[in-house]
Specification:
This protein is an all-alpha fold. The chain has a single domain, classed as Arp2/3 complex 21 kDa subunit ARPC3 (Orthogonal Bundle). It is built from 12 helices and 2 strands; from the N terminus they run ααββαααααααααα. Strands 1-2 form a two-stranded antiparallel sheet. The model has no long low-confidence stretch (mean pLDDT about 95). It is found in: Cell membrane. It holds the Pfam family CbiM. Keywords: Cell membrane, Membrane, Transmembrane, Transmembrane helix, Transport.
Length: about 325
């Protein structure tokens, strides 16, 4: 559900950029007070996992469309909502800057649409409440599906509103929403099943991770996260290097919705802000669309992109956690 720049006006891009920046600032402020040391390596590993997992589009049967997980709920369930939003923002920014996935102007919209609802709203208000009394596999899967579906419905509706406010007459509100909401309902079910499977696996290894995050408690000194880190590193490498080769080639839910209205999967828009954004992205993206620029060896390019993107995400998300932790320690020393 990565929006391209052509879907939004510079004014909407500016407003959503400001809203997202303010939300990120608030998250950093909150994280300075309560980010755990043990969560820092998990920020890197889980960020890399979500980056690679987002590369794998799954087919929505009978539609000619596909979808991929957003990853916000997985991150929130493991890290807590605040670090999760910071990590997901990192993932989406890396996708836009280095892999030309989602527009630079649309970056604020994409972070908000995919991260705000899943991490900051429906994880604490819905998933957390559903999981209060039991962490059985059945409950984890049901809570994951329900939360993923609702969060994605709000994200998809936000995309429709942002294009409406941007004056994109090619996408009439009624036609766009009739396509966007049902297809993302189906994608939400797929994401919920995948999220539930991942969280069941993590809970089977170290149940305290999910339970303590939900109750806003710190992990006790005796709780080790090494096994989760190692297993997720291996899983991330397999997903990014191998499974990414078998992603569905159908357009995602947003592209599919646009295509059914305009007969094209993307819109085009001219103007200086769009040219500047495009030039920045051309200069910064070394593997656009997760492949080599010369388009040779597409399969190898996809594997390299998955491994490279996962590594970059790991390093940057880890550094964000370390910097926040250092600031936290400096504040305590005064």
């Amino acid at each position: 559900m990565h929006m391209s720049d052509a879907l939004i006006s510079p004014e909407v891009a500016g407003v959503m950029g400001a809203v997202t920046t303010a939300t990120l600032g608030w998250c950093v402020h909150k994280a300075k007070n309560n980010l755990e040391e043990k969560k820092i390596p998990l920020m890197g590993v889980m960020g890399a996992f979500v980056f690679c997992a987002q590369m794998i589009n799954f087919t929505i049967p009978g539609t000619g469309s596909s979808g991929h997980i957003g990853g916000g709920l997985i991150l929130a369930a493991v890290l807590g909502p605040i670090p999760a939003f910071l990590v997901l923002a990192t993932v989406i920014a890396i996708q836009a800057l280095f892999f030309a996935d989602g527009g630079i102007l649309a970056l604020g919209c994409n972070i908000f649409n995919m991260g705000f609802y899943s991490c900051l709203v429906f994880y604490p208000l819905l998933f957390g409440k559903l999981m209060k009394n039991s962490y059985s596999k059945k409950r984890i899967i049901i809570a994951s599906i329900v939360t993923s579906v609702i969060a994605l419905q709000f994200g998809a509706f936000s995309v429709v509103l942002e294009t409406l406010m941007s004056g994109r007459s090619q996408l009439p509100f009624n036609s766009f929403i009739i396509l966007m909401q049902p297809i993302h309902f189906a994608i939400g079910i797929g994401e919920g099943l995948i999220t539930g499977a991942v969280l069941c696996y993590i809970h089977s290894i170290r149940p305290e991770i999910l339970e303590f995050a939900n109750n806003d408690k710190k992990l006790s000194p005796g709780v080790s996260v090494k096994k989760i880190i190692l297993s997720m590193v291996v899983l991330t490498g397999i997903i990014g290097g191998v499974f990414s080769l078998y992603a569905s080639e159908y357009p995602d839910g947003l592209e599919w919705s646009i295509g059914n209205i305009t007969s094209e999967e993307e819109l085009s828009y001219e103007g200086q802000p769009y040219e500047i954004s495009e030039n920045i992205q051309k200069a910064s993206s070394f593997m656009p669309d997760y492949s080599f620029k010369n388009n040779e060896d597409v399969k190898i390019g996809t594997s390299v992109a998955g491994l490279a993107g996962g590594t970059i995400t790991f390093v940057i998300a880890l550094l964000i956690g370390i910097v926040i932790s250092k600031i936290k320690k400096l504040r305590r020393s005064y």
